Amino acid sequence: MAPVLPRRSFLAGLGAGAAAALAGCSRLRGDAESPGPVPEAAVGDERVERRRSEARRQDVDFYTAVPAGHGDGKGLPVCLVLHGASATAADFDDFGFARFLTDAVERGAQPFALAGATGGRLQWQPSGDDDPRALVHDELPAWCRERGFDTTRRALWGWSMGGYGVLRFAQTYPGFARAVAAFSPACSRGDAVFQDAGKLKGTPVGLWCGLQDDLVGTVKALEQALPEPKAAGAYADGRHTRRYWNRCTPAAFDFIAAELNR
Questions:
Q1: CA 160/CA 187 separation, integer angstroms
Q2: Residue 20: band (very low, low, confident or very high) from pLDDT cuts 50, 70, 90
Q3: What is the pTM of this model?
Q4: DSSP 3-state of 247
Q5: What span, in angstroms and rounded, lies between the C-alpha atoms of 151 and 93?
Q6: pLDDT tens, 123-155?
Q7: Mean pLDDT, to the nearest integer, of 45-73?
Q8: What is the DSSP string of 96-165?
Q9: Which CATH superfamily is domain 25-260 in?
Q10: Contact predicate 132/125, CB 8 Å
Q11: What does the domain layout of the chain look like in residue ranges?
C-alpha cells in the first residue's frame, strides 16, 4: 500500500473582503489567503498517495475523496479531475474538494467520488514517453477500481489547462464520460477542441467562465460551436482564479452528480 499523506489543514474564518463577497452564502467560508470560499462541511475519506505511472514514466500523486458518511466509497461512481497548469493532485485537499463533495450530498445530490492524478503541464496530451492522456484513460480507472469505485459511471471535471484537457479527452474517447464540466478551459479559436467540437455530440457539457477572465470570449465562442446546447454552466463576475472556480464548484458538482446517476 502506498503511503497516505496527511490532509493539510484549512484556514478558518472570514476576512472582511471575503465576507462582503460571500453575502448571502452562509455555508461558505474564505479569506484573502485561502483558495476561495469552501463549504463548512465534513471531510470524508480523503487520500493523497504516490503511485507509479507507467504512462508518465514517473511517480505521481493520486488523490481520491469520498463524501462524509459514505465510508470508503465502494460502489460510488467517480468524477476524474484534471488540474490546471499551476496545480497538482497534491493540492486538491487544500482546495477544499472533499468539503465540496460532502456539501453537495448534504444539499441533496447523489453521492460520487473524486479521483485525480498529477499530469504535468502537457495540456493532458502525450509528449514523447510522457502520456498523461493514457494516465487518465487507463491507469486512473484501474486505480479507482482497486478502491471499489464504480468506474462504469464516469464524469470529467477540469479547470484552465484541465478544462481544455477534459474537453479534448471527451472528443478523443466518445462515450468514456457521462458528462464533462470545464471551468475557464484554456482553449483558442481554431485549436483541436474547436475543430472537433462536433465530437462532443451526445456528451453533456458544462461550461463556466468569469466575465473578467481573458478567456471569456473564447469560451462563449466554444459554447456556440458545440453541437448541442450546453447542459450546465454560467458566466459571472470573476477572473482566472481558484476563488472564482470555487464559487462555481457547487453547481458543477450538482450537474456531475445528476449525470452520473441517470
A1: 8
A2: very low
A3: 0.88
A4: helix
A5: 22
A6: 999 999 999 999 999 999 999 999 999 999 999
A7: 98
A8: THHHHHHHHHHTTPPP-EEEEE--TTSTT--BTTB-HHHIIIIIHHHHHHHHT-EEEEEEEEEETHHHHH
A9: Alpha/Beta hydrolase fold, catalytic domain (3.40.50.1820)
A10: yes
A11: 25-260
